[in-house]
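input
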Amino acid sequence: MHIAVVGAGSLGSLLGGLLAREHDVTLVGRDPHMRRVASDGLAVTGVEQFRVSPAARTDTPPSADLALVAVKSDDTAAVAEQLTDCDLGACLSVQNGMGNEATLAAALDCAVLAGTCTYGARLQSPGTVAFTGRGEVALGAREGGESAAAERVSAAFTTAGVEATHATEMPARLWEKLAVNAAINATTALARVENGALADGSGADLAADAARETARVAREQGIDLPDERAVSLTREVVRDTAANRSSMLEDVAAGRRTEIDAINGYVVRVAAEPVPVNETLVRLVRTWTTGADVE
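output
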């Protein structure tokens, strides 16, 4: 399978590197990372250590069996437009936030799949990505139900050694992921702490409150997500990724724009009743963005 990984940063590079052991992979990202991969290959360190030689470029290829989209949510519309010129068999989003799949589906003629990913990755330097935690990719039809495209993609991932599940309940999984991200990302970014700092104390309480609010909004949207499950999933991710820095913390540390509007901001926008914890987190992160020199 020819897989174009669009958004080859930390997670995209790791998934692309893992998939390149079995498939024809093209990484699409920014220089100098792409330039180094093109010349020297991609080095993966950490949980597994290996080197592969995927194609690397800064623009989308003319065709691919699958576009694996891993860009930040603010870039989804631009990527969707770019992919209209690519002859695609299917498209899979493993992005943070909500609404990315709808944006892609509005522009593309192929099957657009929703995905969640719990693999841990960190871009160490141009040409090198650290594999910081083994996880799972769950993928399926964005509306839920069976999908022949999702079955093909999950089988291709599994063949390459990537833990993958064809999930028929992706709307619920996306809300579960949103609850975890709403709980962990903004909290760690504002406190400048690794995920493990939310295992107990004030940070854990704040994260749990954000998760509960998100679960309540999910139920308003017709998704059966109990408060207890949202909090339990958050605590599980905190435990399993204790040494990791959330993507939002990495963005803040690097002076980049964050995905706050697609995560906590989404909860605020669609909530029928006030969500004061998520609203406060959004306001604080936006205040930092306004006051910082971000990209």
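quick obs: The chain has two domains: 2-168, 171-291.
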